[in-house]
Amino acid sequence: MLHSWVGMTNNRKANLPFSFSDRGDLWAAGSTATPAAMTEPHHGGGIAQGLIAGTLVATEMGWQPVEDLRNGDRVVTFDNGMCPVKAVRISTLWSAEVNAPRSVWPLLVPKKALGNRTEMRLLPEQYVLIESDEAEALHGDPFLLVSASVLDGYKGITRVPPQREMIVVALEFDRDEVVYANGTTLVHCPKAQQAMVSTAEDLMNSGHSALYQRLTDVQGRHLVETMHQGLVS
Predict the structure, then answer these.
(1) How many of the other CB atoms lie within 10 Å of CB of 15?
(2) What's the chain look like in SS3?
(3) CB 59 within 8 A of CB 180
(4) How far is 66 from 172, CA to CA, in rounded Å?
(5) Backbone angles phi, psi at 93, to 5 degrees
(6) Which residues of 171-180 are buried (b: 16+ CB within 10 A; e: fewer)?
(7) Sign of the CA dihedral with 82 first, then 84, 185, and 131 last
(8) Residues sharing a CB contact under 8 Å with residue 223, sequence separation 6 or more, in sequence order
(9) Which of 112, 233, 89 is nearest to 171 (CA)?
(10) For residue 119, how many other CB atoms are within 10 A of its CB?
């Protein structure tokens, strides 16, 4: 069980490897259109993907804020037990609320909505692993990856305006992994895309090597709607 691996948070202080010196507004003043970057799929590096600082991740040292993790730290994964982190990539999103398209607003996840012990926030392009009978009925697999964006409205999950500064952390392992966040919320940490498709053969095979099926947003919304109907029926 997860709780036999992790205990109380061990709050290690660390100097974060980023600088605010060159920060600029992600969206130009007065912009009303969604930036082009937001309309394209992102794999292992979208600007609306990653874990927001403050998210607690299950490690061999207990629950750790994701921004405190370092290369080599061992994290509890859903499929492979304790795995060392290969890379920790920290970036800062800087935005004036009035300029940020709603499509990139983070989602506020109420306590217990996704198995989380405490309220948490997810970026819209962060994929989460969900388990449901509806997933198996629709797609033949009870475990499926959906983007957090499609969960808007499910179990009280809702969009909230972004903070002016958001520190975002991407964890990378030797392979795709799913890790525990704030309890039993399962978040996807993809292997770096450049490593996955270093050759033409890798490019052809990369779509078949994933642990879990990743739904499109259209498929994800349909699944979540079906799950919601199951809750209220």
Answers:
(1) 5
(2) CHHHCCCCCCCCCCCCCCCCCCCCCCCCCCCCCCCHHHHCCCCCCCCCCCEECCCEEEECCEEEEHHHCCCCCEEEECCCEEEECCEEEEEEEECCHHHCCHHHCCEEECCCCCCECCCEEECCCCEEEEECHHHHHHHCCCEEEEEHHHHCCHHHCEECCCCCEEEEEEEECCCCEEEEECECEEEEECCCHHHHCCCHHHHHHHHHCCCCEECCHHHHHHHHHHHHHHHHC
(3) no
(4) 12
(5) -95, 130
(6) bbbebbbbbb
(7) negative
(8) 130, 132, 134, 135, 138, 139, 144, 146, 150, 215
(9) 89
(10) 12
**pLDDT tens, 74-97?**
999 999 999 999 999 999 887 665
Longest dimension (CA), the chain: 53
Residue 19 class from Cβ within 10 Å (0-12 exposed, 13-18 middle, 19+ buried)?
A: exposed
**Best CA proximity match to 69, nearest among 151, 12, 123:** 12
* Type of residue found at 204: M
165 — pLDDT class (breaks 50, 70, 90): confident
pTM over 0.85: no
Place of tokens 């952390």: 169
Cα–Cα distance for residue pair 141/225, rounded to 1 Å: 17
